[in-house]
TrEMBL record, chain A:
Membrane topology, as annotated: Multi-pass membrane protein
PROSITE patterns from the UniProt entry: ABC_TM1
UniProt function note: Part of the binding-protein-dependent transport system for phosphate; probably responsible for the translocation of the substrate across the membrane.
GO molecular function ontology, one term from the record: phosphate transmembrane transporter activity
Record's GO cellular component terms: plasma membrane
Any matching Pfam family: BPD_transp_1
Protein name from the UniProt record: Phosphate transport system permease protein
From TrEMBL, chain B:
A single Gene Ontology CC term: plasma membrane
Transmembrane helix listed as a keyword: yes
This protein's name: Phosphate transport system permease protein PstA
GO process terms (BP): phosphate ion transmembrane transport
Organism field: Blastococcus xanthinilyticus
Stored InterPro entries: MetI-like, MetI-like_sf, Phosphate_PstA, Phosphate_transprt_permease
Membrane topology: Multi-pass membrane protein
Entry similarity comment: Belongs to the binding-protein-dependent transport system permease family. CysTW subfamily.
UniProt KW keywords: Cell membrane, Membrane, Phosphate transport, Transmembrane, Transmembrane helix, Transport
Localization terms from the record: Cell membrane
GO function term, MF aspect, one: phosphate transmembrane transporter activity
Automatic annotation (TrEMBL), chain C:
Pfam families the record matches: ABC_tran
The protein's name: Phosphate ABC transporter ATP-binding protein (PhoT family)
Keywords for the protein's UniProt record, in alphabetical order: ATP-binding, Nucleotide-binding, Translocase, Transport
One of the protein's GO biological processes: phosphate ion transmembrane transport
Gene3D superfamilies linked: P-loop containing nucleotide triphosphate hydrolases
GO molecular function: ATP binding; ATP hydrolysis activity; phosphate transmembrane transporter activity
Length: 316, 359, 259
């Protein structure tokens, strides 16, 4: 309302509440609190099951290099795959969002947006199948070419894998998977760019690209960043596609095209968990905890950016 | 910004009138330039052994450059940049279509081989080579997903009701925030949570269908909350007021006015949430496992589910490898069909259950 | 059963903001009382405080007394839901329930409270209420069609039928004609003249001619400036307000000299 903030319980005003009302309100509120408890439970149970691995002597952890030594290469692999995916997907997603929002013929724009959204609906295990069977062999020539001509860049140091089941392929598969997430959010903010500004730009004689540069991109920038962060979160936690496609080693290398790339946390869990016993289980859960914390941080950052933007636009 | 339109020299050579006509590329010129680009591209790729992909690639690059150069010469820098961006953006969209088309083609191509009656009626019980099917996995997926929905929908819906109709202050803010955070939980972590929860109670070896349902619920609840919240916010306040003014208590107003008005959106949201989790593999891998026979009791031992079935058929084929691969692809095809069907159902719900206006 | 409402020293707050200050008024049964005044003067807020509808907004509260035939509406043990059952309300924009048919809209007050009713009894209530709202002849052949398919004026009469179907004692109307065309407005005004035989009616209106046409008593609300509380400046028989008001401010407003 207008003047000051409302005190939660105004003095002197007692209201009668019916039992039905009280019960319903309580169950609604209880559900909300339950969700908070679940999230706390996720953290608590993971910690309690990870604990044995945290306190175990280093030589008992698989690999014999202690928990940190076990998880560190996996963290490198996880970040490498996710960042690669992000670098490929973001420019593409922004272009797609612009195409659907401002370039595609009006009549088909909605349908095209829907087609892009379908990419998000395909289960990740199917992406894994496709990456393994189609993409990996198709990228083999590129692997050889990169090892020959780009070998001086550490990322492409080689020797080139002869299966194509490399970090590079994984990055591309993940890029396709997070493409719809980033482009959906970007599209939304691009469409919301104030018509007034857009029309003002066009009225000044701007071309379509100049209009987008002046009125759409400045408005949508933080939305794109937030979308990219959410995509990153998804790529960090993606399990099956990586587990199926990647055939790597255990070294913490940045080499994208060799056979020695480290696995990611999530795919390592998926591959080892079904057969794991004893301390292995605790170790894997500890690595899951690390993944949980990483994605939590990324997602909270993304939400913070989104909310900051909401506050900002609310002030106008 | 360039001012060339206003240069007096240009104005002098143009025909006079209120609107100056600028020189423009002929309408079909870009198309012709692209065609030329593709032709040259074909030649180029023929040098290194002809390939369609390379032809298209060279064609797109050369065509774009030609259009840019032509436009720059005839129409000026600004217009040329505009054409360049248009070409880039359109190309990006086309590039994104490639994996989608390739994926759908591959799954159809490889999946149709075993898309037969036996696949839907047989389990893998005592099957070592050819034959067999995913009957047990299909039913397992249905049961576990239904169970997950039965857990998630009441909690998610009630929470969204709290957020829209009752919530205020700190609690509302923190629930909104943490529901957003929960959307980002990796599916494998949700699986580990269910595993940790149940093994703490029942011991390490436990694998149950309901564990998978709990894991999927962790993924599904935030989706349900968010979509239901959006939909409930759309219900006009006037309807709530109309109901209150008739002497209807708040909870009856919510149950009998707000929810029925929003039912189409709620149905759509829940269906999409189901579609989101029905193809999840990782959480089921660590909680439900896989069996070859049919187990329909989610409270008793391992169950088969379609995604996990597909995964193991592909990655751990037996003696007759092709039979396993065929089953894997058919399972993948079936998964895609289920997810697409759910998406279509969601659209139909929002179309047919929307409040009728009578016009 | 029309009832009399007495308001004494009523202050209405939104949180700490005093929206309406010091209202003393007696609203007579079986008559129409009109409330006029410039925008934002608190007349709608006052109207909504009569059936405790303003409490729907968080932080809203009142001081003072509202008594209906001896019953204190703001007593500690009074349930606002009961208050609203005996004091009905019609809103500015017609708001029939979009999921319900015309028939169900009329009977909504009973159905939503799960009141058990025989089919014949329900039919009777629907017909009586629709006749009471002068809508029966127009909709009797399509009672099962959605209420949102009617015209704006018909929808508003449907909302009136819905409000009188629960047999309230008082009917509050918050600018019921402001979203309607002149012909629908006249239809509603005729209806009000009939309804006042059975109900106490309080109407908020921006339209002074409407107040002059339909009401017996008129109250003029005004406020001194932005952020100041609204006050009831004058309350008199309509005839007197429009011909020879006691207050200078009333005369200025009615003759269009400010606002």
């Amino acid at each position: 309302m207008t003047a000051t903030k409302a005190p939660t319980e105004p003095p002197g005003q007692r209201t009668v509440r019916r039992p039905g009302d009280r019960l319903f309100a309580a169950s609604a509120k209880g559900s909300g609190i339950f969700i908070l408890l679940v999230l706390a439970g996720v953290a608590a149970f993971l910690i309690s099951r990870a604990l044995p691995a945290l306190v175990a002597p280093a030589e008992d952890i698989p690999g014999g290099a202690g928990l940190a030594g076990y998880i560190a290469p996996l963290v490198v692999g996880t970040l490498l795959a996710a960042v690669l995916a992000l670098l490929v997907a973001t420019p593409l997603a922004v272009a797609i969002a612009l195409y659907v929002a401002y370039y595609a013929p009006r009549r088909v724009a909605a349908a095209l947006g829907y087609v892009i959204d379908l990419l998000a609906a395909i289960p990740s295990v199917v992406y894994g199948f496709w990456g393994l069977t189609v993409l990996a062999p198709a990228l083999l020539p590129f692997h050889e070419w990169a090892a020959e001509y780009l070998g001086w860049i550490p990322l492409f140091a080689g020797p080139a894998s002869n299966t194509g089941r490399t970090m590079f392929t994984v990055g591309l598969v993940l890029a396709v998977m997070i493409l719809p997430i980033i482009s959906a959010i970007s599209r939304e903010v691009f469409i919301q760019a104030p018509a007034l500004h857009r029309e003002a730009a066009l009225a000044l004689g701007a071309t379509r690209w100049e209009m987008i540069k002046m009125a759409v991109i400045p408005y949508g920038k933080s939305g794109v960043i937030a979308g990219a962060m959410l995509g990153l979160g998804r790529a960090l936690g993606e399990t099956m596609a990586v587990a199926i496609v990647l055939s790597g080693g255990a070294a913490a290398t940045l080499n994208l095209i060799s056979n020695s790339s480290p696995s990611t946390i999530a795919s390592n869990i998926a591959l080892r968990f079904p057969e794991a016993t004893g301390l292995d289980v605790n170790t894997l859960i500890a690595s899951g905890l690390v993944l949980f914390l990483i994605t939590l941080a990324v997602n909270m950052l993304a939400r913070w950016i989104v909310n900051r933007r909401a506050d900002f636009s609310g002030a106008n | 910004m360039s001012l060339e339109t206003q240069s007096p020299v240009r104005a002098a050579e143009e025909p006079s009138g209120p609107i100056r006509h600028r020189r423009k590329l002929p309408r079909l010129a870009p198309l012709a330039l692209y065609a030329a680009g593709v032709a040259v591209g074909a030649l180029l790729s023929a040098l290194t052994g002809f390939s369609l992909a390379l032809t298209v690639f060279y064609g797109a690059v050369l065509g774009t450059l030609a259009v840019y150069a032509g436009s720059r010469a005839v129409e000026g820098r600004r217009k040329a940049t505009d054409r360049l961006v248009t070409a880039l953006v359109t190309t990006a969209f086309a590039v994104a279509m490639v994996p989608l088309v390739s994926l759908v083609y591959t799954v159809l191509d490889k999946g149709l081989a075993r898309f037969d009656g036996q696949f839907f009626t047989n389990s893998m019980f005592r099957v070592v080579g050819e034959g067999g099917g995913a009957y047990h996995a299909i039913l397992g997926t249905l049961i576990i997903t239904a169970l997950a929905a039965a857990i998630s929908v009441p909690i998610g819906l009630l929470t969204s009701i709290y957020l829209v109709e009752y919530g205020s202050g700190r609690l509302k803010k923190s629930i909104t925030f943490f529901v957003d955070v929960m959307t980002g939980i990796p599916s494998i972590v949700a699986g580990l949570f269910a595993f940790a929860l149940f093994t703490l109670i029942f011991g390490n070896g436990i694998r149950l269908g309901v564990m998978g349902a709990v894991a999927l619920s962790v993924l599904m609840i935030p989706v349900v909350v968010r979509s239901c919240e959006e939909v409930l916010k759309l219900v006009p306040n006037e309807l709530r007021e109309a109901s209150y003014a008739l002497g209807v208590p708040k909870w009856r107003t919510v149950v009998k006015v707000v929810l029925p008005t929003a039912i189409a959106g709620l149905g759509t949201g829940v269906t999409l949430a189901v579609a989101r989790v029905v193809g999840e593999t990782a959480p089921l891998l660590v909680t439900v496992g896989l069996i070859t026979g049919t187990n329909l009791n989610p409270f008793d031992g391992r169950m088969a589910t379609l995604p996990v079935f597909a995964y193991y058929q592909l990655t751990q084929p037996g003696v007759d490898a092709q039979a396993f691969l065929d089953r894997a692809w058919t399972a993948a095809l079936l998964l895609i069909i289920i997810v697409m069907a759910l998406n279509i159902v969601a659209r139909l719900i929002s179309r047919f259950f929307a409040p009728k206006t009578g016009h | 059963m029309a009832k009399r409402i007495e308001v004494s020293d009523l202050n209405i707050y939104y949180g700490n903001f005093l929206a309406v200050e010091g209202v003393n008024v007696a609203i007579e049964p079986r008559s129409i009382t009109a409330l006029i005044g410039p925008s934002g003067c608190g007349k709608s807020t006052f109207l909504r405080s009569l059936n405790r509808m303003h409490e729907v907004l968080p932080g809203a509260r009142v001081e003072g007394k509202v008594v209906m035939d001896g019953q204190d509406l703001y007593a500690a043990d009074t349930d606002p839901v009961d208050v609203r059952r005996s004091i009905g309300m019609v809103f500015q924009r017609p708001n029939p329930f979009p999921t319900m048919s015309i028939y169900d809209n009329v009977i909504a007050g009973n159905r939503l409270n799960s009141k058990r009713m025989k089919k014949a009894e329900a039919d009777e209530v629907v017909e009586k209420s629709l006749r009471g709202a002068n809508l029966w002849a127009e909709v009797k052949d399509r009672l099962d069609r959605p209420g949102s398919g009617l015209s704006g004026g018909q929808q508003q009469r449907l909302c009136i039928a819905r409000a009188i179907a629960v047999e309230p004692d008082v009917l509050l109307m918050d600018e019921p004609c402001s979203a309607l065309d002149p012909i629908s407005t006249l239809a509603i005004e005729d209806l009000m003249a009939e309804l006042k035989e059975r109900f106490t009616i309080v109407i908020v209106t921006h339209n002074m001619q409407q107040a002059a046409r339909v009401s017996e008593q008129t109250g003029f609300f005004n406020l001194n400036g932005v952020g100041q509380p609204g006050r009831l400046i004058e309350f008199n028989p309509t005839e007197k307000i429009f011909s020879n008001p006691d207050e200078k401010a009333t005369e200025d407003y009615i003759s269009g000299r400010f606002g």
